[in-house]
Amino acid sequence: MSNNISACTQEISNTTHLPAGSIALWWLGQASFAIRSSSLTILIDPFLSEVEGRLIKPPFTAETAPEVDFVLCTHEHLDHMDLPTLGKLAQHQQQTHFIVPRPLVKLLTDAGIEEARIQGVQPDEEHALGTAQLFPVPAMHAIQCPPRVYDFGFAESGGLYRYLGYMIEMDGVRLYHPGDTLVYNGLAEQLRGMQIDLALLPINGRNYYREQQHLVGNMDEREAADLAAEAGINAVIPTHYEMFSANTGRVGFFVDYLRARHPTIMCHILSHGRRFVYTR
């Protein structure tokens, strides 16, 4: 490989043999992940652009990314739908397909991605992603705060869900990536019915002062831990911290709270760009 290829790219590319019931994950910062089974590579919310205020450097660029089968984006904020990265990735990897909430398909076509390579999805649907299965889950978020309150984005999207999370079943492992969401009535019940093995939960929270700076928030550390318990989730990886100083979370507090209140739930703290293998 070229010297320009990062160690993270090499490790993802070389991870081709995994035990049964196992997947490999790489935290790329914020809510961005690479997920690998023995036969499939998925990127979720890849945020690889160098932007002002970013504290963690991207582990690779769109030009030096590993071969990717599917890219999933949960909503339109830059740290989840990095359109410059998506456009470059589409140019460099003709095999890659893109999964987004249905109201956001046009954002990708406007970025130069062929519509035939984009699939818009909604909750209560099931989609095959190669050897994996995808189940979209509603997320409660907002385009901007203020003045919008947290909701599902129906008003801006003709009654469609604008913000999504995804449950992905790969090699027998059920993984939940919520995108950005608050805990809302019925979320825990939906997830309990899906029998989630591993959840990648945001912990940065929200408050009035951040919202006055147009920083739309999430569940906080306590809510993430309590959601995992109520939903019967086996293991959790906290996300959405350490990227921007004005909008981070307290991972130490999350671990302490989870251990004190819900000690049977496993917690894994990932290093940026380093492989973690989860086995059921």
Automatic annotation (TrEMBL):
Output the lineage of the source organism: Bacteria, Bacillati, Chloroflexota, Ktedonobacteria, Ktedonobacterales
Q: Which SUPFAM superfamilies does the UniProt record give?
A: Metallo-hydrolase/oxidoreductase
Pfam families this protein is in? Lactamase_B_2
Any coiled-coil ranges, and where?
Answer: none
Per the UniProt record, the source organism is: Ktedonospora formicarum
Q: Which residues form the Metallo-beta-lactamase domain?
A: 42-241
Q: Where on the tree of life does the source sit, at the highest rank?
A: Bacteria
PANTHER family noted in UniProt: UPF0173 METAL-DEPENDENT HYDROLASE MJ1163-RELATED
Name of the molecule in the record: MBL fold metallo-hydrolase
